[in-house]
Design goal:
Blueprint lengths: L3 H4 L3 H8 L3 E7 L2 E12 L2 E9 L8 H13 L5 E7 L4 H7 L3 E6 L2 H5 L5 E2 L2 E2 L3 E7 L6
Parallel strand pairs: 3-4
Antiparallel strand pairs: 1-2, 2-3, 4-8, 5-8, 6-7
């Protein structure tokens, strides 16, 4: 749970998707470094519900490695992968570098669904941005 709460800081929100998630944990030298929780949303859509890296392991490519692993594991099984995230100076560039494109915005999602303001990179998260990446067989 501590690592999940880095990616989604309210426990009751994590518990909403935890039971139906497949969780991948990246370890280095036997120590948990990062995780990614994904769900089958139906209709050929795989959703990243949570991706988190312990602070001491950030900026070392672990998040990207998880995205690449998930992309390889699920290629041919789903038509696209989505991720909802805050409009943060950290997460937006991360998803873009991983080949995702922002396809929509859900106005005031964070302010309506969380019991406290959430800040990331000095910015209060309000809207949820929906990122999407389509699989192409030639990429994997």
């Amino acid at each position: 749970m501590p690592l999940l709460l880095i990616g989604d800081e309210q426990e009751d929100m994590v518990r909403r998707y935890l039971d139906r998630s497949t969780i991948y944990v990246l370890r280095e030298d036997g120590e948990d470094c990062a995780l990614c929780a994904v769900t089958d949303e139906g209709g050929g859509v795989l959703e990243i519900k949570n991706i988190a890296v312990y602070p001491q392991f950030q900026r070392r490519g672990f998040g990207r490695k998880l995205i690449d692993h998930i992309s390889a594991v699920y290629a041919g099984k789903f038509s696209r992968i989505t991720a909802g995230t805050g409009d943060s100076p950290f997460t937006v560039p991360f998803y873009e570098k991983c080949g995702f494109v922002c396809v929509s915005r859900v106005k005031d999602w964070f302010t309506q669904h969380y019991d406290h303001p959430i800040y990331e990179g000095g910015v209060q998260l309000r809207d949820m941005l929906i990122f999407e990446k389509n699989w192409r067989s030639e990429c994997y």
